[in-house]
Automatic annotation (TrEMBL):
Gene Ontology molecular function terms on file: isomerase activity
Keywords, sorted A to Z: Isomerase
Keyword set includes Cell membrane: no
InterPro entries in alphabetical order: 6-hairpin_glycosidase_sf (IPR008928), 6hp_glycosidase-like_sf (IPR012341), AGE/CE (IPR010819)
Pfam families: GlcNAc_2-epim
Family listed: Belongs to the N-acylglucosamine 2-epimerase family.
This protein's name: Sulfoquinovose isomerase
């Protein structure tokens, strides 16, 4: 659950893995889970109007802005350690943009008819927040 993976060791971020009891196994924080979660939180908020999803979405954006965005070289950092410092323990290098689309594009498209058909139909809202 979110509560198992988000900051289970006291530091913000999704840990890479937890055991069955929610105890962190690999405490590094990699980029793709949080950006996928952001797209999901936005979709759930859109469908349910439940403010907890909007709060998670905004909390995760704030985290990404603070820790994951590489303002010097562009793009986003792939991995942070347990103290939210850049590391390469799990993977070395910069990732492609695939996972970032979930937090950058999903909020700008209607949930139906799906991502590709919505883009093809010109439904991308470039002014969405």
């Amino acid at each position: 659950t979110i509560r198992d993976a988000w900051a289970p060791d006291g530091a913000d971020g999704f840990v890479y893995s937890v055991d069955w009891d929610g105890k962190p196994i690999v405490r590094e924080r990699v980029r793709w889970p949080i950006v996928e979660a952001m797209g999901t939180a936005y979709a759930l908020y859109t469908l349910t109007d439940d403010s907890q999803y909007e709060e998670w979405y905004q909390k995760w954006w704030d985290y990404c802005i603070k820790y994951l965005m590489d303002y010097e070289n562009g793009s986003w950092w792939q991995e942070l350690d347990a103290d939210n410092k850049v590391t390469t323990k799990v993977w070395d290098g910069k990732q492609d943009i695939y996972h970032l689309l979930h937090c950058l594009v999903i909020p700008r498209l209607p949930l139906a008819p799906g991502l590709a058909p919505a883009v093809a139909a010109g439904l991308l809202d470039i002014n969405a927040k």
